[in-house]
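Entry:
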Amino acid sequence: MRSLPLPLALTARLLPVAVLAAAGWALAADPFTAAPTAQHDPAPDRPATSAPAPSASAAAGKTYTASPAPCAGLPVASIKSLVPGAKTAGQEIASTDKSLRRTCSWNALKDFDYRWLDVSYEIKDSDASARKAYDDRVADKSGGGPVPGLGDSAYSVVNLTTEDKQQTREGVVIAQVSNALVVVTYNGSDFESKKAPGTDEINKGAIKAAKDAVNTLKNGRKA
């Protein structure tokens, strides 16, 4: 296999995830810099395998008091499908407070095809606080649209960027579930053709991962 020069941003993503903890979270938080394009075609639900514990203090208005283990948020079959060649255990990104926010990343370069997936859980003080955070993020990501039937509210958007003639297409799905937010970032590139996967593929993949992650959250089993 011949080696290919990689754009700086994508080269950084191929370094060990432990070194990229801050960068990995930045991608999930605000990955877009180019004009967006979007399609909305929700993928079918998939069963989840593990989940966080719902709050015992429902009277306090918090359905969830702690973030689940994010690397247990997706079934192994989903990880293999979305990120071929990745270690299914994933890599959890460092967090200052794991009870409030946890993120897991999977990435792999198989032949010339590269995929990166982040799944994040954020726990807010109340449903109203989660809704405000959701609305603020959606307002920053124009060009997308709602995802029906996912959590209390959900939104997906897809963008194409080009660096050093290498295309990368990235999708983000944001879902509110009571006082929790689930945020999924999914992207890909082909280093041989320098083209990106299609909008539909990335959008469906991000929605699939978000559905799995939300199902895990709602299952109510401690991960």
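The longest helix spans residues 199-219.
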